[in-house]
Amino acid sequence: MRADELELLHTLSPPTLHPDGDRAVVAVIRPDVAGNDYVGQLWSVPIAGGAPTRLTRGHRDTAPGIPRTANCWPFCGPARTAAPPNCTSSPLPAASRWP
After folding, report:
1. Does residue 99 carry a pLDDT above 60?
2. Which of 9, 23, 59, 75 has the greatest CB tally within 10 Å of its CB?
3. What is the mean pLDDT of the chain?
4. pLDDT at position 51, please?
């Protein structure tokens, strides 16, 4: 492996199955060499196959939970201070909402 290939190493969280059973949500975390950090977003993956869809564009979004409504689900994002990560139920942008 070469140094320029480090950003190709993606780590996936355990999947969280949507209550409808048609898709799962995973956190995908990868190194950001230029930023000397890790970057993570949540992705929706159709169970029957097809292309995944990015749901969040946070810096280090992780730990997807089970959605309580069609527009919100719990997940953790980075804290802006030395405190532990912020865990929240965040509304999705309209383009990313569950069908």
Report:
1. no
2. 75
3. 75
4. 94
Total domains present in the chain? 1
Taking alpha carbons only, the member of 75, 73, 25 closest to residue 53 is 25
Residue type, 41: Q
Output the pLDDT for position 96.
41
Residue 72 lies in a domain: yes
Residue 86 lies in a domain: no
Rounded distance between C-alpha atoms, residue 1 and residue 86, angstroms: 34
Domain that holds residue 29: 3-78
Residues 6+ apart with CB under 8 A from 42: 25, 26, 27, 28, 54, 55, 56, 61, 64, 75
Convert the pLDDT of each residue in 29-59 to its tens digit: 888 888 888 888 888 899 999 999 888 877 7
The answer as to whether 84 is a domain residue is: no
Concatenating the DSSP letter of every residue in 42-77 gives EEEEETTS---EE----SB-B-----SSSSEEEEEE
Question: Residue 94, SS3?
Answer: helix
